[in-house]
Amino acid sequence: METIKLHDRTFSPYLSAQEIQDAVVRLAEQINNDYRGKDLLFLSVLNGSFMFTSDLMKHIILPCEISFMKVSSYQGTESTGRVDELIGLNSQVLGKHIVLLEDVVDTGVTIDKIIRLLQTNNPESVEVCSILFKKEAHIGQNRPKYFGFEIPNKFVVGYGLDYNQHGRNLPSIYQLKT
Hints:
alpha/beta, Rossmann fold, 4-stranded antiparallel beta sheet, 38% strand
């Protein structure tokens, strides 16, 4: 993996595509074990989680549903601190076990808002699964039950994560070079 440039910023290699795929398989195995025999709905938070969701679902062996929700809380390299729901949930959640799929959980503001919205529809349970977790940035009430990597509070791109809409297509994850 080589250093890359997106717009005006340079990014250094952080997690290889193979490391990511190994974590995805591990997460799928945990979910397959934990939700056997349960009415399961995966809710993918777009845009960033599209690659993670696709890869994870290839390893889920349980009967399940999948739906998508789009929210926004980033501008450039900074979280805006607010959450704007852009595309709402289109699946019934009453009595279902929901696993929210995220690319990265940092402050937790987005996840907290989504969980509050979901709980008004009485799901059986709601858990979070994210490929990345920025524990030191987390101020929310809901931590991910499942995560691939705990990373420092640094800006990253690739594997669905973007810098001003560029870099989502990269199979590896890169960290902003300071």
